[in-house]
Amino acid sequence: MTDEPEVLDVRGGDEPQLAVVGCVHGDEPCGELAMRRFLDEGRDLRTPTAFVVANPRACRRGVGHVDENLNRAFPGDPGGESYEGRLAASLLRAVGDCRVLDLHSTHSYPDPFVLVPRVDGRTLRLAAATGISKVVDIGHVSGGLIDHVDGVAVECGLTGTVRAAENAYEILTEFLASLGALDEPASGLETPPEIYHVFDAVEGSGYEVDATNFERVEAGEAFARRGGDVLTADEPFFPVLMSEEGYEGLVGFKALRVKRVADMDPEA
User: Fold this and answer.
1) Are 231 and 251 within 8 A, CB to CB?
2) Whole-structure pTM over 0.85, yes or no?
């Protein structure tokens, strides 16, 4: 076995300018399913685009990772001891000069939302190209692929569901159409994006989450519990990626809603 991502195909030319990436986590198959469906349709692309299974070894085993979380291993080390550490370096070599769409799924929320490493004009334009209105600034959490490339990640839906794979297919098609790679119109966004800024992580494991992601939790409100241990909000926040499973040692994240992008003025 090699420590290389699996490039399913490069369409539209020899030197990729765009890359669609799936299976950074091997137990999130929606990205690979969407890419294979799109490639099987044989549509012509006007921009060279690579379709990449990031962690093929974990993907074939149906596990999140082999040695460590690939999305915390970047920029990686070609000579490192960890498989994902070596793989991270290989993946950056494969897609580092491309605009990247990184497809994921989650245990926390059924509808798609975009993750960006920071909020600026460039990331918001790429986020808008997905056709999704919810945008989360996840810069509080370092180490992900989108920290090291010109790209965005999308949580496409609930892990293992048909709907997540359908969403991933629709999102990658919209992304390619929006960026001019497909000779067909993009749907575009009908409303301005909702932008959330993650400011804190909630540590712990085995908690049942009472809160609903993207719905405001008030100060003093209980949002998770484990037996008699109840987590209560010190201040208002919006939960993001909170679930009983999905993150080792984390319940999820707290976010503020951004009112004005120009000055990043947040409100809980």
Assistant:
1) yes
2) yes
